[in-house]
Amino acid sequence: MDNTQTFQFFNRGPSPAVRLVFFAVLSLLLLFIDARYRYLESTRSALSVLVSPIQRLATMPGVLWQQAGDFFTTQRRLVEDNQLLHQQHERDAAQLLLLQALQQENQQLRTLLALPQRGELTTQSAEIVYAERDVFKRKILINKGANTNVLIGQVVMDDIGIVGQITRVYPWLSEATLITEKDHAVPVQVLRNGLRTIVFGAGDTSHLSLRYMPVSSDIQNGDLLVTSGIDGIYPPGIPVAKVVKIERDAAYPFARVTCLPVAGVDKHRHLLILSGLPKLPERPAEEPAPPQDMKTKQKK
Amino acid sequence: MPYLAPAHPEIQRPVSTSLIVLSVLFALFLNGLPWEGVWLMLRPDFVAVVMLYWCTHKPLRVGIGLSWAVGILADVADASLFGQHALAYTLLAFGGVMLHHRLKMFDLRQQTTQVFVILALTYAVYVLVHWQVNGYVVWPYFLGCLTSTLLWAPLSIMFQAARRMRVDRDH
Fold first, then answer.
1. Is A284 helix (H, G, I), strand (E, B) or coil?
2. CATH code of the domain covering residue A199
3. CA atoms within 13 A on the CB side of B33
4. What confidence tier does B10 reach under pLDDT thresholds 50, 70, 90?
5. Distance from A150 to chain B by nearest Cα, in Å?
6. Residues A50 and A88 both lie in one domain
7. A131 assigned to some structural domain
8. B27 Cβ partners below 8 Å, 6+ apart?
């Protein structure tokens, strides 16, 4: 290593070690600010304007491959698809009529009982630009951003269930975190009996888990979990996951429940972004803290 | 095997800035391709290998500062924390700049082992930051380090050929 410290004829600025320390400290500072305070989102979206042309270009091979595939689909497959879709549509239309009647009825009942109405959901369709580029993360980038009023916290779903939630908005793109991301939580209830719980991502592609379910709780294989709508972020009643495995071990207070997401979390290209959720009233303020301290002191 | 001999016995032509810029942009492009599943695990970090190549071959033009800036761009592209790639690439560039005299004495096979150590450190830093922030480690991520190392020899040969091509054209 000694011969790297050669005599310098010309001034080349600070030595590599000094630069290393400077840039390492700068990176650590940025890391700290970004992880702790999230102040740098505007810088990020400004820089994303530089990077996004490359990202767009990188999606081209995939898009071309898909277009080539579209071009070479056979007539027969198209006809088959068309027939299937027609049948599906007829079945759905019948259900939809029923649903409209039910909706009317529900609305009337709610006015009778003076309950707040369920809000109409507005959706906008979006397309996945690319999916999970990092082994660590379950994130996708979709092609709607601040230009179409996408907001942080909005829910992303496909035609059958919840896929994730918008976590970052760029000028023309937005980033959605999938429900399978580790520790991502969705408040749900069991459709069969209305049991409220929270479903967490397990960090691999295909699993979700229910934590803090008492061993004695009434949950069965095949139970459908739908959003409970309690948090005011997810609209109520949208399918999230299906229970596939329950391990009850008397040694632990909680049962271990594994679920599979209902939606094709890592399958589809086209998604819906839900917006215009009804605003919930503000959460009442917490009790003032000092009296609690008094109580604990008294207990001691 | 002419390429396995110690590199560049002849006087080197200057590398044009456009070659450096284009290679880095192309590496960012390759990193951005829609990799999935197993392929994502095996994906080499093209940007890291390209930056390491330039840091070892042109340490006066591509150094720690530039690597840091490229790391910031990679952070934006990957939606990782600000400074995560930047920190890793800063260390990578430091390793490259410190080793650039030594690497020139070796043939490609010996270079590969040295490069592996630097890349492993880079990956380790990246994982360390992730572990500190999120509290868990994804071990298969280190597979990318192996494939990145394997990329070193073909990449060096390719850049050598590209630079020789420019010389031939000038005659």
1. coil
2. 2.40.10.350
3. 17
4. low
5. 18
6. no
7. no
8. B46, B47, B49, B50, B51
Q: Chain A residues with CB inside 8 Å of B28's CB?
A: 51, 54
Tell whether A159 is covered by a domain: no
Q: Given B65, B86, B98, which is nearest A30 (Cβ)? A: B86
Domain range for residue A37?
17-60
Half-sphere exposure of A117 (CA within 13 A, CB side): 9
Query: Is-above-0.95 flag for pTM?
Result: no
> Which spans in chain A are helix H?
16-36, 41-71, 75-113, 289-299
Name the minimum distance, in Å, from the CA of B166 to any CA of chain A. Answer: 26
- The reply to whether A32 and A101 lie within a common domain is no
Domain identity same for A27 and A92: no
Tell me, what's the pLDDT at A297?
A: 43
Task: Answer whether A48 sits within 8 Å of B76, measured CB to CB.
Answer: yes
The answer to whether residue A157 sits within a structural domain is no
Mutate: best of B76, B81, B97, B118, partner A, most A CBs <10 A: B76
Give the closest of B77, B82, B136 to A55, CB-based.
Answer: B77
From A126, A226, A236, A231, select the one nearest A176 (Cα to Cα): A126
Q: How many domains does chain A have?
A: 3
pLDDT in tens, B88-119: 999 999 999 888 888 888 888 888 998 999 99
A54 and A77 belong to one structural domain: no
Cα B49 to Cα B37: distance, rounded to the nearest angstrom: 22
In this predicted structure, the answer to whether residue A135 has a pLDDT above a threshold of 70 is no
Contact B86 A130 (CB under 8 A): no
Task: Check whether residue A198 and residue A263 sit in a common domain.
Answer: yes
Rounded to the nearest integer, the mean pLDDT of chain A is 80
pLDDT of A142-171, one tens digit each? 888 888 888 888 888 888 888 888 988 888
What is the average pLDDT value for chain B, to the nearest integer? 83
Residues A26 and A89 in one domain: no
Q: What are residue A124's DSSP bridge partners?
A: A273
- The reply to whether residue A24 touches residue B140, judged by beta carbons under 8 angstroms, is no
A203 and A254 fall within a common domain: yes
Contact residues, chain B, for A182 at CB < 8 Å: 134, 136
Contact assignment for B134 to A55 by CB distance below 8 Å: no
Q: Please indicate, yes or no, if residue A65 is contained in any of the structural domains.
A: no
Closest in B34, B60, B83 to A34, CB measured: B83
Confidence (pLDDT) at B11: 53
> Residue B160, Cα to own-chain centre: how many angstroms?
15
